[in-house]
Specification:
The chain has 479 residues and is of the alpha+beta class. The chain is built from 13 helices and 22 strands. The chain is globular and about 75 Å long. It starts with a helix and ends with a helix. The model has no long low-confidence stretch (mean pLDDT 93).
Length: 479
Amino acid sequence: MSGDLREFIRKSSELGECKVIEGAHWDLEIGRIAELSLSVPDSPLLVFDKVQGYPSGYRVAANPFSSTRRAALALGLPLDLTGLNLIRAWKEKLASLKPIPPVYVETGPVRENVLLGDDVDVLKFPTPKWHEHDGGRFIGTGSMVIQKDPDSGWINVGCYRSQIVDRNTVTMHIVPIHHGAAIAKKYWDRGLSCPIAMICGQGPQLWVSAVSPVPIGMSEFEWVGALQNQAVEVVRGETVDLPIPADAEIVLEGEMPPPEVESAEEGPFGEWEGYYAGVRAPHPVIKVKAILHRNDPIQLGVPMLVGTHDDSLIWCVDLSAQLWTEFDEQIAGVTGVSFVYAARRRPMVVVSLKQMYPGHVKQAALIAAGSYRGATGVGRFVIIVDDDIDPTNMTEVLWALGTRCDPKTQIEFLRNRPSQASDPRVSPEQRRRKDMTTSTAIIDACRPWAWRDQFPKATKTAPEVMQKVREKWGRFLFG
């Protein structure tokens, strides 16, 4: 699928997977309704309109990817794909990408309203306070932040959270290992403010690009152009020399002065791990110089609420496919990769492997743990299973873990691994030392190589045989 956020909402409605909710309040109510919706599988995309205190048409979209079909829709894949087949299809699509640079156009819907000077007011949008103990209203959750490397001119797009301070000031929270932090530091080291544009509502593939491990040096705009097989149309910023998606909903343009020049208190926030692990602390700020927005703008909210069936599936699909590609470039035998969305994505990854030589399991585990596309940053568990295990099926994964893994000999630990402030397992003492590190367990849940041929045979019927049974008898069982 190509297109903007409105097209995604329209197509979700055609699938029967979109609900409009009117009259909710921005203060906690929107967040709690969105969280409640995640208590059932394949919950709908929610569009909040007529938010209390705001004009009709000023909307907030939430839970965009809380169904498998909408995840496939956003990625431009067949809607009937699920599990490992969905990951495999996304991996194959990524393998065929040929970057297409963005193309500048004179104007676009994003320029229907251009606010400058005293007209700049981020409070005109119904930004939610998502969680009870959040430090404020976070306008940057399902957002994308655009920056330009001052040396190479490389345009980077990332997803970094942002809290409203006042009508023309918002904070910026970027983990130091991310590309956006490295770019900002280049400006700050020269005593300069970093030009920036934050998009608060955009097409799904643009948002996916902002959270995906796109290689350094490649612009996410080029990556999305390849996905769509057509160039992303952009307009020039009003006050910054940055490309702005022509069909974006809301854009905050401005600059980030060095933190020692200006900063503001930010947080806490209900982090993606599901805790208020961060503390209220000084953060860099964006001084907003201009706001561009469409008529009847839609703010995209992806605060990563904790639900029984949460909204992190699409991130898991992308991360899994990216890491699987990394394996294909380094070793043979990997038959599937899956980050576990129920474990909040990054902390746990499962890799299925056809063992081919001694040490193959350890080699695969270390690649998963050390790769930029892998379990870096709060990667707590790397689990390697045999190739008869579907890594997206946690029942099978736990079967392997419970019956093939001897804890004493098949679990090892990596220490001093990079983590971040949002990690709830970073101790208070570590935080005082600014020691944002963690450990990773490597779990070998495979049949031991030395006596794999003598390992008891599984009673599980082979998938190809079961498919024939399904074709013959499935209609009696499943209608």
